[in-house]
Amino acid sequence: LDDTLSGKGPFTVFAPGNAAFKALPASELAYLLHDNATLTKVLEYHVASGSVLSSALKNGEKIKTLQGADVNVTITKKNNVTSIMIDDATVTTADVNATNGVIHIINQVLIPPNLSVPNIPAVAKASGLKTLVSAVTAAKLDSNLSGKGPFTVFAPTDDAFNNLPKGVLAELLKPENMKDLAEILKYHAVAGEVAAADLKNGQRIKTLEGQDVNVTISGSTISIDKAKVTKADVYAGNGIVHVIDAVMLPPGFTPPTASTCKATILDSQDCNKNHNILSKPKMTQDGCCALCASTKNCKAWTWNKAIKADPDQTCYLHVDCKARTKEEGVVSGTMTEAITPVIV
Fold first, then answer.
1. Per-residue pLDDT tens digits for 238-287
2. Sign of the dihedral defined by the CA atoms of residues 127, 129, 130, 136, in that order
3. Are 64 and 88 in contact (CB under 8 A)?
4. Residues 86, 206: contact at Cβ < 8 Å?
5. Are 121 and 135 in contact (CB under 8 A)?
6. How many CB atoms lie within 10 A of CB 258?
7. Does the bond joining 150 to the residue before it have cis omega, within 30 degrees of 0?
């Protein structure tokens, strides 16, 4: 806009001081400085055609800006001191004359009406990351990633999600697997804003999931774990997004697969704790269900899915599931009784 404001004019500029810009959240200011279209709208909202001295401003006056919307003038007097406000900003120095207009210095950056700085989910949606947006919503993390932050998100493309083993994505998006999905997504998010230029080869970055991702830089290629960054530094008002070409799985995490088990699944519930007819380590969820189906008198089972809590992922079989207790990291099932076919 320097050519415009160096033109014939005249113009009136409501100019935020350095402190006004510093008062903006750092991530919001970073977004504005990396999005010319939005920044232009914000700056144009501080400029009006014509040269208007402070003495010519009127209380309640509306002044049309180059952005198109009006700013509102409020003038108050107290103890013979006149205060001028433009929207919510106070004029700290009035009538700084220029050859093509006048500048009034203000103490806040003015944001045009109906202009909002997009948060990370909005930026992901605008970038075409449809599966990620759906996954964030399914895991109920959209409100978190819409929060103040700032956050850094390593965002898998739709193709990255589709390249997961067959059936895994569909299972992750099921309500009963919401915690698993959230665990994966949190492994892609970091507290704080980290631009690509700030990443270092060999760096380890702690994720919201709790474990670290590893940064590898080779020439111009940046990799996070084994995923390559295909588009870096997509700024949002509450952080930054780096698009990657693979979905990263936390160390020790086993993704859910389509179950062949004919049982009613009880997530985070333990059946008949310490009353087992059989236990067997090194099992999968489907394997535990199949073991129950082939064991006499077994009508329910409990399986430790949390590797951290039970590295052996033990399967426990029960005669029923009448006594249930809430316990994170376990999955139980009550067997579905077979229906005897009737021949007519």
1. 999 999 999 999 998 877 776 677 889 899 999 998 899 999 999 888 88
2. negative
3. no
4. no
5. no
6. 11
7. yes
The tokens describing 167, both together, are 């059936």
From CA 197, how far away is CA 237, in angstroms rounded?
19
Per-residue tokens: 211? 């474990």
Reading the block at residue 268, the tokens are 């985070």
**What's the pLDDT tens digit per position in 19-53?**
999 999 888 899 999 999 999 999 999 999 999 99
The residues with which 191 forms a beta bridge, in sequence order, are 151
Report how far apart, in Å, the C-alpha atoms of 9 and of each of 15, 117, 156 are: 16, 30, 48
**Torsion angle (degrees, nearest 10) of CA 277, 283, 287, 291:** -20
Tokens of 322: 């009448």
Cα–Cα distance, 319 to 272 (Å, whole number): 9
pLDDT in tens, the chain (344 residues): 888 899 998 999 999 999 999 999 888 899 999 999 999 999 999 999 999 999 999 999 999 999 999 999 999 998 888 999 999 999 999 999 999 999 999 999 999 998 888 999 999 999 999 999 999 999 999 999 999 889 999 999 999 999 998 888 998 998 888 999 999 999 999 999 999 999 999 999 999 999 999 999 999 999 999 999 999 999 999 999 999 999 999 998 877 776 677 889 899 999 998 899 999 999 888 889 989 988 999 999 999 988 888 999 999 999 999 999 999 999 999 997 532 322 22
Q: What is the rounded CA–CA span in Å between residue 221 and residue 192?
A: 22
In angstroms, rounded to a whole number, what is the distance separating the alpha carbons of residues 264 and 23?
A: 54
DSSP string, 193-244: ---GGG--TT-EEE-TTSSEEEEEEETTEEEETTEEEEEEEEEETTEEEEEE
